[in-house]
Design brief:
The complex is a heterotrimer of chains A (337), B (106) and C (585). With 337 residues, chain A is mainly alpha-helical. Chain A is 67% helix and 1% strand. A two-stranded antiparallel ribbon of chain A has the order 1-2. The C terminus of chain B is likely disordered. Chain B is elongated and about 55 Å long. Chain B has a single domain, classed as Helix Hairpins. Chain C is mostly helical and 585 residues long. In chain C, a hairpin with a 4-residue loop joins strand 3 and strand 4. The longest helix of chain C is centred in the first third of the chain and has 32 residues. The model of chain C has no long low-confidence stretch (mean pLDDT 88). Classes of the chains: A mainly alpha (337), B mainly alpha (106), C mainly alpha (585). At the A-B interface, helix 1, helix 2, helix 3, helix 4 and helix 5 of A face helix 1, helix 2 and helix 3 of B.
């Protein structure tokens, strides 16, 4: 029974992927990708990766989907021009040939994988106790391979600097994204008032659970970032100025605290990013707590994009007249046109 | 066939599909979607390998799963930078073509 | 084993990686004018650390190792610095400091502005590139290296379009998308290796890897992906517009430093992770691609109208040089790639290119700034107006040509010896011919800047003395690199530059280069050549121009997306096939 479910999921995934890639319309392709992302989470559940499933659903599906949907609404007719540039039959034939060859060779590799499969699970299990956390994935992310996690936070910050650097000079120090006016009767405003308290509770629960159960800072940060975006899109609060001091402090606190804890480890445990006996769990919690604001801010700001308004633009009014409704741009995740 | 082999083979096909899109789709946004599909193929393959490595009472090898979480976040960052670049390009040139400008007339 | 326990000097490795990132984070936090100040505090610190690592490495006489968190691989991550890593760390630290001094004039925050976008982004991204490169050099884990590659890409791409024009945005987007293809292929290979061998630690993998399908597939995919990021011909789709269009201080970073990251990873994979999987035909393919890059890149460079694009195409040619060592390092008896003279030669080439190319872009940038344009045909009188800048450009060019005692000279010598030793005489021709091509575009620029100008040259801007000085120091550094490298190498390798043999080679190379420049330059080089010379020469020039134009067309064709992406996969397939063909039975 489960085998049949898996097979159906796999076939559906392939069909969606193919549809997404060949569809003529960009909006259709992106919509297909969003559904694909949801289905992918299901695959992760079947592959015994609840943590990955949560991350995939939150970031791979949710945030990436929102980003692409936001972009597809702003293509301004560049699609038609691009379509006229599409490759000829010969190129496409070559592309099919090469893609199929790569897939075939990979499949052959998969079928000749060594038995018994190599694994680090026993080693991870053996050393997990020393980290004080119950979730082995958290153990890997914050003890055995803590450097990767630190670098990942740095990657996000660099990506954010890169996105900001694309702003037109006149908007430097300004606010990213369009300004959303509030629509007091809108469904979005209603959601933005009702959902955040729930979202914050769920987000913090996922954060807390991550030490011993599936969940963790990324999934939690994504939900918190989504709540913030919702509040912004409903016009209840404006995107921050990128030169705001508190914003910058929030962005750098995670990696800087991480490095500081690492240095403490070098001093107390004899190795950078090491934890002294019995202190692993509290130090890991400190790192995760510090990373949380960084992740929430950076994920949301990456979604917001480059600064697109001058710093002097007044913050969105809380409750405005109905005239705001007509000028309100569509939210990033909303429908097209 | 086990679940992990099934999804590993599915992953190989996803990589192929993504590659095809990357080559033939002219619009940068479509290339980006294809990149994400190809990337997810690589991730699923890694996930299937992790499940093959189930041992010591764990349902899967936790090391690849942890690496995957990092990789998914990195792929999101890549997507965000690319989207920002694309939107800025459209804003300033009103085109999204990757082709070189035709060589100047002289 | 000593590769899996921390050594004394290993403690310096984590700070070397993290220091630039901490600088970046502090700069971001403090903002405004402080960004540049923070960068200038961290640059000497980073340089001192690199020197410290070099000293520790020399003193300990072995690879420096550091186990992060005390966790040993395969569960944990080790940082390691061997000879190549130490050399690159030191070179990059030096070049970053040089570029930093140069960039002060271009990327200062203007008075009355609280924070300027270009300055803020430039200094933070410079730090990010530096940290990412250090990580590439010392990381001992293939996944951490993937993260490092992405760090490098995310930091490099925005540098391309700091000026914000449509053309540079397009170049940056192209760079980003193509680099993303490359990184997915790399990650795919790393995943396969984990599936096959259960570790991503380099020495552990080196022990476990067998010449079998999974390792071959992984090597082929990863190599193709990394070549896309390095922009080796025919995968240079993004390089000329990106490097030619960026502000000079950013071009110097991209051209001298960023491409060295993915190149270094190819070296790691081929020499340290899977030397036993490599076969001679596959190594020859890398060399052939390198040779094609040299020829096509140099010819197209000679056809350029603008100085910065000339330098960008010269980078494309110089990247080719970096791959000539692969076939020469192959040991036919052991069927493996060997650490040895060829690898040393390749590394020296990389270091001398990093220093010289940074200097060249800086000089080109200064000329552009002073004149308000960089049309090669209109450079008359520049030598008189900007003598130091021109001197830096020419010295950098001479260093790249491989004249005694430049680093490129020593590199060429080591590679020539390796070619002799392994009986691969054809690479001798490529090595010598490449120097002639380099001489070609140096002569082209030199003749134009030395030309007298009838009217006085009007400079639109005074160039900063400090910037000129930075360019000159890097050029001189590259020129004297052989002397510095002599510490660990045998002394007989460097001969007297004024000895008959050396002098004759230099003169021959310069004459060959002059002929190339005469034949191929877009605007006729000497007015006399047109009027006084016979019809024969006119016809020769005509033929040469036709060849040059053909190369330009080929280059434009190759740099179209469908072609480049198909070439990428074809190369992966070709490497896969060649790894199979030459394998021992």
């Amino acid at each position: 029974m489960t085998a049949i479910v898996s097979l159906v999921v796999a076939l559906l995934l392939l069909w969606l992927a193919l549809w997404t890639v060949v569809a003529r319309d960009a909006f259709v392709a992106v919509a297909g990708f969003v559904v694909y992302g949801l289905l992918l989470s299901l695959v992760w559940v079947r592959l015994a990766g609840i943590d990955v499933a949560l991350t995939e659903a939150a970031i791979g599906g949710g945030l990436t989907g929102a980003l692409l949907l936001g972009a597809v609404g702003r293509l301004r007719g560049t699609e038609a021009a691009a379509w006229s540039e599409r490759s000829g039959a010969c190129t496409r034939a070559f592309a099919v040939l090469l893609s199929v060859s790569v897939a075939t060779v990979l499949a052959l590799c998969v079928l000749t994988l060594p038995e018994p499969p190599p694994t680090l699970a026993p080693q991870a299990a053996e050393n997990l106790a020393a980290t004080g956390v119950g979730n082995p994935i958290t153990g890997v992310l914050l003890a055995f391979r803590a450097l990767d996690t630190l670098l990942e936070a740095v990657v996000l910050v660099i990506a954010l600097i890169g996105v900001w650097s694309l702003a037109p000079d006149r908007f430097w120090g300004g606010r990213p994204g369009p300004r959303y006016g509030a629509d007091p009767d809108g469904i979005l405003t209603y959601l933005a008032r009702v959902l955040p308290p729930i979202g914050i509770v769920v987000g913090l629960y996922l954060f807390w659970a991550g030490a011993d159960h599936p969940g963790g800072k990324f999934q939690s940060a994504t939900i918190l970032a989504a709540m913030w975006m919702l509040v912004q899109m409903a016009g209840l609060s404006d995107a921050p100025r990128i030169d705001s001091r508190w914003l910058r402090a929030g962005i750098v606190v995670g990696p800087l605290v991480f490095v500081a804890v690492g240095v403490l480890g070098a001093w107390q445990a004899g190795a950078f990013l090491g934890y002294p006996d019995g202190w692993a769990k509290p130090m890991i919690v400190v790192i995760e707590l510090a990373l949380l604001p960084t992740l929430v801010l950076v994920l949301a700001l990456l979604l917001n994009g480059a600064p697109a308004r001058s710093a002097d633009s007044p913050p969105a009014p809380g409750e405005t007249s109905l005239s705001a409704r007509s000028t309100r741009p569509m939210p990033a995740g909303g429908t097209r046109q | 066939m086990t679940v992990e082999t099934l999804f590993a083979l599915c992953a190989c096909a996803l990589v192929g599909i993504g590659l095809y899109g990357l080559i033939v789709q002219p619009h940068p946004l479509r290339k980006l979607v294809a990149f994400n599909i190809m990337g997810s193929g690589v991730f699923v393959l890694f996930g299937a390998l992790a499940m093959r490595g189930a041992a010591a009472g764990m349902a899967a090898d936790p090391v690849p799963q942890a690496l995957l979480i990092t990789a998914i976040v990195v792929a999101f960052a890549a997507t965000a930078v690319t989207v920002a670049l694309l939107l800025r390009l459209i804003e300033s040139t009103a085109t999204a073509s990757l082709a070189d400008e035709p060589p100047s007339g002289d | 084993m000593e590769l899996w326990t921390s050594t004394h000097g290993g403690a310096l490795l984590a700070p070397a990686v993290l220091l630039p990132f901490v600088g970046m984070l502090l700069g971001l936090l403090l903002g405004g004018r402080q960004v540049q100040r923070v960068a200038f505090v961290f640059m000497p610190l980073g340089l001192a650390l690199a020197v410290g690592i070099t000293v520790a490495w020399l003193r300990e006489g072995q690879t420096l190792v550091y186990l992060l968190g005390g966790w040993a691989p395969p569960l944990g991550i080790a940082l390691r610095a061997d000879g190549p890593a130490v050399a690159m760390l030191l070179a990059v630290a030096g070049v970053v400091c040089g570029i930093g001094i140069y960039a002060r004039a271009d990327f200062g925050t203007p008075l009355g502005v609280k924070e300027s976008r270009a300055a803020f982004s430039y200094w933070l991204l410079l730090m990010a590139v530096w940290g990412a490169l250090n990580l590439v050099f010392v990381s001992g884990d293939l996944f951490t290296l993937y993260v490092a590659l992405e760090l490098l890409t995310f930091a490099g791409v925005p540098l391309v379009c700091l000026a914000g024009s449509g053309e540079t945005l397009r170049a940056a987007l192209r760079y980003m998308l193509f680099a993303l293809c490359g990184s997915v292929l790399y990650l795919l290979g790393a995943v396969l290796l984990y599936g096959g061998y259960g570790t991503l630690d380099i020495p552990l993998l080196a022990d476990a890897v067998q010449p079998e399908p999974i390792a071959r597939t992984a090597l082929a995919l990863m190599t193709a992906g990394l070549l896309a990021k390095t922009a080796l011909f025919p995968l240079h789709i993004w390089l000329p517009p990106a490097h030619g269009g960026a502000p000079a201080a950013a071009s110097a970073v991209l051209s001298a430093l960023v491409i060295k990251g993915s190149w270094f990873l190819v070296v790691r994979l081929w020499f340290d992770v899977m030397p036993g999987v490599v076969t001679l035909p596959s190594a020859q393919l890398l060399g052939v691609l390198g040779a094609m890059a040299i020829v096509i890149g140099s010819v197209v460079a000679l056809r350029q109208e603008r100085l910065k694009l000339l330098v960008a195409y010269s980078t494309m040619a110089q990247i080719g040089y970096l791959f000539l060592m692969f076939p020469l390092a192959f040991d036919a008896t052991g069927n493996t790639l060997m650490h040895g003279a060829a690898l040393t030669g390749g590394l020296l080439q990389a270091v001398s290119h990093a220093t010289a190319k940074a200097a060249m872009f800086m000089a080109a940038g200064l000329i552009y700034a002073a004149l308000g344009h960089d049309r090669i045909a209109d450079l008359a009188g520049v030598a008189r107006a900007l003598p130091v800048t021109v001197l830096a450009f020419v010295l950098a060019g001479i260093a790249l040509m491989g004249v005694v005692p430049s680093g490129a000279y020593l590199a060429k010598k080591l590679l020539l010896d390796a070619a002799d030793g392994s009986g691969q005489w054809w690479w001798t021709i490529v090595l010598q011919g490449g120097a002639v091509f380099t001489a070609g575009y140096v002569v082209l620029v030199l003749v134009n800047v030395l030309r007298r100008r009838s009217a006085a040259l009007i400079l639109v801007k005074r160039v900063s003395r400090r910037s000129e000085f930075a360019a000159l120091v890097l050029a001189v550094g590259s020129l004297l690199l052989a002397l510095a490298a002599l510490g660990p190498l045998p002394g007989h390798l460097v001969s007297n530059p004024l000895a008959h043999k050396e002098l004759a080679t230099t003169v021959l190379v310069l004459m060959g280069g002059a002929l190339l420049a005469l034949g191929l330059s877009r605007a006729p080089l000497l007015a006399v050549a047109r009027s006084a010379a016979g019809a024969n020469e006119g016809r020769l020039r005509h033929a040469a121009v036709a060849i040059g134009t053909a190369f330009e067309h080929a280059d434009r064709l190759v740099r179209r997306w469908p072609f480049a992406s198909i070439a990428l996969l074809t190369l992966a397939a070709a490497f896969g096939g060649l790894l199979l063909v030459g394998a021992p039975k």
